[in-house]
Design a protein that fits this description.
- By secondary structure, this protein is α/β, with parallel strands linked by helices.
- It folds into 3 domains: about 170 residues, FAD/NAD(P)-binding domain, CATH 3.50.50.60; about 120 residues, D-Amino Acid Oxidase, Chain A, domain 2; about 50 residues, no CATH class.
- It is built from 11 helices and 18 strands.
- Helix 1 packs parallel to helix 6.
- The chain is globular.
- The N and C termini lie far apart (about 50 Å).
- The mean pLDDT is about 95.
């Protein structure tokens, strides 16, 4: 029997894959409803279709372009392969339904308190013993803490709100805002007026958000904030028959802080390990870990950029040849993009000094 703690998209995706193979799977969710509360931007690259059949039931918008702004206000407009904006409540619920249709059982209002030698203690309901326990329970993973593999983690704060803008925008365009100090801002449109406006940073998140709200003036409809783990390739993600996946394993892109698709990739790896044996840690390092490590190196490099460096970066990206490369090599897996950029535009080599 496999017990998965956390009924987010990664946990439910893993549950659906395992149960489809005939494995008895129970998913335990601490909240009363799957997909609530929301703490995610919900923008997914075209690679989503590599893992699941994309459903119009949870897609609220599709975008095909990004405008990236530098600190001095200049920008570059880049065509993207189709990105999906999803309703996270409907998105999570969809995967729960798929998991249940394959035979998995979803238990709500079951908050894990601790686990010891396969025995899980919950705040409500009886204790449960399980052969395999998977922590898909987010950045503050109780599974990781109880199993002694939580480690010394780093986080950024994501501060996001749904905002109704005063003026209409092009709903096919997502906006990103770059600046020094480990900062990234975003505007993700649900339609021409309602957007998800947010920032992520180690410090000063409230001030950054207020500055962004002044640039894209509107009325706050609700908040969707939370902490985001920074990927740590040295983090222990398994111990005995306990495994961590998704945000619980810090499997998040350090460049854009997106974690759903890397988490699904890691879930596929974990499924194979549970079914066939082997080292989950080694398998992750050989697969999605390579991409996540590249994202981490890029983030560390960009954290050393000054405002002038970001201004120069955006200026270089305005070349048609560079835009074409960015379109061809999606941000999900950046290694090929970096190699191509250095070959095509040698002026990017100036950033190697960092």
């Amino acid at each position: 029997m496999v017990s998965i703690i956390g009924a987010g998209p990664v946990g439910n995706y893993l549950a659906s894959k395992l149960s489809a193979e005939g494995v008895k799977v129970d998913v335990y969710e601490e909240h009363s409803k799957v997909g609530v509360p929301i703490a995610c931007t919900g923008i997914l690259t075209s690679y989503l279709s590599d893992f699941v059949k994309v459903s119009e039931d949870y897609v609220v918008n599709k975008i095909d372009r990004t405008d990236v702004y530098s600190p001095n206000g200049s920008s570059v407009s880049i065509k993207l392969k189709k990105n999906f904006i999803v309703d996270r409540t409907l998105f999570d619920s969809h995967f729960a339904e798929v998991a249940e249709s394959n035979g998995a059982k979803i238990h709500v209002n079951r908050k894990l308190v601790s686990l010891n030698n396969g025995l899980m203690k919950f705040q409500k309901g009886r204790d449960v013993r399980s052969e395999v326990i998977v922590g898909a329970d987010g950045p503050n993973s109780v599974v990781g803490r109880s199993a002694g593999i939580f480690g010394d983690r780093n986080f950024v704060v994501g501060h996001q709100a749904r905002v109704k803008l005063k003026e209409k925008i092009d709903s096919n365009v997502v906006e990103f805002f770059l600046n020094e100090g480990n900062y990234i801002g975003w505007l993700v449109p649900e339609d021409e007026r309602v957007v998800r406006l947010g920032v992520a940073s180690h410090v000063g998140t409230d001030n950054y958000f207020n500055e962004l709200l002044k640039k894209r003036n509107g009325k706050v409809l609700g908040w969707q904030s939370g902490v985001i783990p920074v990927y740590d390739p040295k983090l222990k993600i398994e111990k005995d028959n306990v495994f961590l996946v998704g945000d619980a394993a810090t499997q998040v892109k350090a460049t854009t802080y997106g974690g759903i698709i890397p988490g699904m990739h890691a879930a596929d790896v974990l499924k194979d390990v549970i079914l066939n044996g082997g080292s989950y840690t080694k398998c992750v390092k050989k697969t999605i870990g390579k991409s996540l490590k590249t994202h981490l190196h890029i983030r560390k490099l960009m954290n050393k950029f000054s405002k002038d460096d970001y201004n120069e970066l955006v200026k270089l990206c305005n070349k048609d040849s560079v835009k074409k490369l960015i379109y061809e090599h999606d941000r999900e897996y950046p290694k090929k993009l970096l190699t191509s950029l250095l070959l095509k535009e040698p002026r990017f080599l100036k950033f190697i000094r960092f």
